[in-house]
Design a protein that fits this description.
Helix content: 10-25%
Strand content: 35-45%
Shape: globular
Order of helices and strands: HEEEEHEEEE
Distance between the termini: 17 Å
CATH class: Alpha Beta
CATH topology: Thiol Ester Dehydrase, Chain A
Radius of gyration: 15 Å
CATH architecture: Roll
Number of helices: 2
């Protein structure tokens, strides 16, 4: 398994514009944080939907990198998000991802998003990634 530091180094070099901090990477999991500022808010004093979607997608990408290694061309092929409640505008957003299926070609995971410190999620997302075939080991289904 690739180390969390290896993933952090890759993101810092190749994807610094992601704007999220990697908190942890485990077996089929990741946890990330997005610091929320004025530019992340929409009218009505809430975190914008595109910001929430990007945190969820980033969390999914990080979990996948943790599971299969550094595969820059792993790509989102499907993404669905349900907005559950208004995020707190002065709290960071935490993304908690769990991979549900790691297959030869597709990886599916879900992500819960929270305003930091709150126990009720503000959104839930499910995404599917396509992985180039040469990057998946023969042990995956």
């Amino acid at each position: 398994m690739i180390s969390t530091q290896d993933i952090k180094d890759f993101i810092a070099k190749e994807f610094p514009q992601a704007g999220c901090e990697i908190l942890s990477v485990g077996t089929k999991t990741s946890r990330v944080r997005k610091s929320i500022g004025f530019d992340d808010l929409r009218p009505g004093g809430t975190v914008s939907g595109p910001v929430l979607m990007s945190v969820a997608d980033f969390s999914l990408y990080v979990a996948i990198l943790g599971e299969i290694g550094i595969v820059p061309l792993a790509l989102t092929t499907s993404f669905n998000i349900n907005f559950l409640r208004k995020p707190t505008p002065n709290q960071d957003i935490i993304g908690q991802c769990n991979l549900m299926k790691v297959g030869k070609k597709l990886i599916i995971g879900d992500v819960y998003l929270y305003s930091e410190g709150d126990t009720d999620p503000v959104a839930h997302a499910v995404g599917t990634y396509s992985v180039p075939p040469e990057n998946i080991s023969s042990t995956n289904e």
